[in-house]
């Protein structure tokens, strides 16, 4: 699991993702996954590029494909669901609107420098 988490973080950083946080949800009773990654891109093009890089590297380096990948059409919020890890890539205004970190505020939060 730790290798996969590090690979996701590195894949986001490759494309200069901003405001990266990891939410550890494992102690929460009704969690949808064990971990969430939340980050943002400065444009919809960057949001798409981050999502594409995460998918490409997980497929090439670990043979994993997401269960679902949603939001690619408008690239304001792309969600990659890898069962126990979900990656949320936002356009800044969309991230502010949904306040995902506040919704899961009981999670253990790790913030990363970009």
From TrEMBL:
One of its GO terms (cellular component) is cytoplasm. Its main location: cytoplasm. It is found in: Cytoplasm. InterPro entries: Iojap/RsfS/C7orf30 (IPR004394), NT_sf (IPR043519). It comes from the Bacteria. Keywords: Cytoplasm, Repressor, Translation regulation. Interacts with ribosomal protein uL14 (rplN). Belongs to the Iojap/RsfS family. This is Ribosomal silencing factor RsfS. It comes from Neolewinella aurantiaca.
